[in-house]
Specification:
- This is Glutamyl-tRNA reductase.
- The protein is of the alpha/beta class.
- β8, α12 and β9 form a beta-alpha-beta unit.
- α6 packs antiparallel against α7 and α7 packs across α14.
């Protein structure tokens, strides 16, 4: 596994190294063909990672070649890429993959999006024929690890983005949304993200207003909403059940007196106002907890931080699960890979031992008691087990250290084993 993430690379470079679907398809195919490896490529806003494997031998691939490949694909100087890459091999690469899938290596620990991204990257590579037995096993196991971490710990409970926390507040007030009107005031990034979460609730109508009429039209077109003139803000507030405000105005756009005099008397039902602007757009005194529920950015950030703090106590139990699963995967894979060779080696030794013991007992026929024969057979069997213990242990140790392919080939040659 070779890549970079939010810890090693600034967003400016991660953007340049990111893969869209078409570029990722081309890169996975090229990487697999050029180096004769199984390949999966994960590309998200927080990481770009190449997973490569060659079960039958040593990898002719390293961080230097990865840097050259990424630089070539994206037209970025290789010297800008090389210092940012980290590299893991053998069991450490499996551990890294499992931690990524379980969202232990995420910018926000426990976020649920990464496991879907890992799954999609694997499925795309699988469909391209770029994976093989090792990466198939590793990624399928990684997805199971993510599921186990999610169900056995509380690490994924609670939303941690400001926009998702905001929607949680809204869902506490309303239990259905198809008859609700959403009003977007301004066109800030946080407001658009919050609107995206709200759209999943299928609101009945979306209104958009902005000091710039053109901006209001653009945002409305992007969400299937209706642009409202800025001068009609009071009327839009009267119609809205849910308000998202992100204007960036230097002073409140809605003082308490204006709201109480012009808006509140004409409203029916409860209104939720998500004031995500800094400075705030709405006078906090508008909030009464009954007809008007007003939440500002500090309220939302406070809940987000509390959720993140709660998740931290589940990190250690999740790490324990990862370590258990890494050990299980490595042992299972070593059995799958080394098993046939060990089987051939043992069968060959059994045959030679049997031939030698049979010849010996035939020559000593009549001179040995049944107990003597059993002792001789047991001694040869013990000798065989001790003789084979070294190669078996060496295979296991080499597999753990990432040199299993070379050791496997050496054992085949030493014991004259056929494929």
């Amino acid at each position: 596994m070779i890549g970079c993430n939010f810890r090693t690379a600034p967003v400016e470079l991660r953007e340049r190294l990111a893969f869209d679907d078409a570029k990722r398809t081309k890169a996975v195919t090229e990487l697999a063909a050029r180096y004769g490896v199984e390949t999966v490529l994960i590309s998200t806003c927080n990481r770009v990672e190449l997973y490569v494997a060659r079960p039958g031998g040593e990898l002719a691939f390293n961080a230097g070649l990865a840097a050259e490949f990424l630089a070539e694909v994206h037209g970025v100087p290789v010297e800008a890429v090389s210092p940012l890459l980290y590299e893991h091999s053998a069991a450490l690469s499996v551990r890294h993959l499992f931690r990524v899938a379980a969202s232990l290596d995420s910018l926000i620990v426990g976020e649920g999006q990464i496991v879907g991204q890992v799954k999609q990257a694997f499925q795309d590579a699988l469909q391209l024929g770029a994976t093989g037995p090792l990466l198939n096993a590793a990624f399928q196991h990684a997805l199971r690890v993510a599921g186990r971490v999610r169900t056995e710990t509380g690490i994924s409970k609670g939303h941690v983005s400001v926009s998702s926390v905001a929607v949680d507040y809204v869902k506490q007030v309303f239990d259905h949304f198809t008859d609700k009107t959403v009003l977007i005031i301004g066109a800030g990034k946080m407001g658009r993200l919050t609107l995206k979460h709200l759209q999943a609730l299928n609101p009945g109508r979306i209104l958009v207003t902005n000091r710039s009429p053109q901006k209001a039209v653009e945002v409305a077109a992007g969400c299937g909403g209706t642009a409202v003139p800025w001068d009609d803000l009071d009327h839009a507030l009267i119609a809205a059940d849910i308000v998202i405000s992100t204007t960036g105005a230097p002073e409140p756009i809605m003082p308490r007196a204006r709201y109480v005099d012009r808006v509140l008397p004409k409203r029916v039902g409860t209104q939720v106002i998500l004031d995500i602007a800094v400075p705030r757009d709405f006078d906090p005194a508008i909030h009464d907890g009954d007809r008007v529920c007003l939440f500002n950015i500090d309220d939302l950030v406070r809940v987000r931080e509390q959720t993140i703090a709660k998740r931290q106590r589940f990190v250690q139990p999740a790490e324990v699960i990862v370590e258990q699963e890494v050990k299980k995967f490595v042992e299972d894979w070593n059995r799958r890979r080394n098993g046939p060779v060990i089987g051939q080696m043992t069968a060959g030794a059994d045959k030679m031992r049997s031939e030698i013991v049979t010849s010996l007992l035939t020559k000593l026929n009549g001179k040995l008691t049944p107990g003597d024969k059993d002792y001789i057979e047991g001694a040869f069997r013990l000798f065989q087990n001790k003789l084979l213990h070294g190669p078996k242990a060496a295979l296991e140790e080499a597999s753990r250290q990432g040199h299993g392919g070379a050791m496997l080939e050496a054992v085949k040659k030493l014991f004259w084993l056929k494929e």
